[in-house]
Amino acid sequence: MTVPSSRWALAFGTLVFAIATVDAQEPSKAMPSTTKESPTGLSLTRQQDGPVPHFGDPIAFGILVRNAGEANAILAEVTFDIPHELSDEYGNAECIPKNSPVVSAGASFRYSCEMTPIRGGVGRYLRVDRAALFQGRYAIDARVALGGDQVPISQSLPLSVDASVMSVFYGGLSGAAMFCLFRALSRIIESQVTLALMLIGAVRIVARTLQGGLVAIMVILLSKVSTGAQAPITISIADFQGGVIAGLLSQPLVRWLKERLS
Description:
Strand content: 15-25%
Helix content: 25-40%
């Protein structure tokens, strides 16, 4: 007895889903901020302001300077080395205030910093490089100038950035295209295909690819209402990889959504 190719495709998508579910559903978490004390007793710690930002959005964070030494410290301007993966999208970080008052021994002072995208409009969300498609954990080199003859503080601080908001849509398109190509190849192997059937199949591949991208968007919208404490099922798709999984399972999800929405 011959198993229909559609069932082989469904089995293939389910297998991939089972393998990658852990990665696709793992919520993004900010990296813990590390603290390293300098010879002067000063240390830097990065503090996350709000949720982890998406690639293309402004990145706001705080720099906390602690004075564990015995003498007062005069802080000046903060400068950064932006990771090369982000340098094409973001300019230099700006921190407020530019100069701070004297930080006495045992006290601390906080700078409020922001990395602003160089591009404006929706163009900053349409990139398809690795930094835009996948969650990233980077390191920024922060330097705080000190007054007098003191050596500036220099420290590498962790920075987490989520994938672009378009990454899941791109993943959904890719996953649906993979699913359709798998079905088409299965039918070619199992039977003879005419030119007319190939043209029809090409049109179906394009349509189902777009359908896969829409399914990925619908899954994102459903995830927004399924993250409460009392939700029986939680859905979380974070980046391109999660979108690919949604695209691979787009046809079963479409049938499921039709039953629920009809």
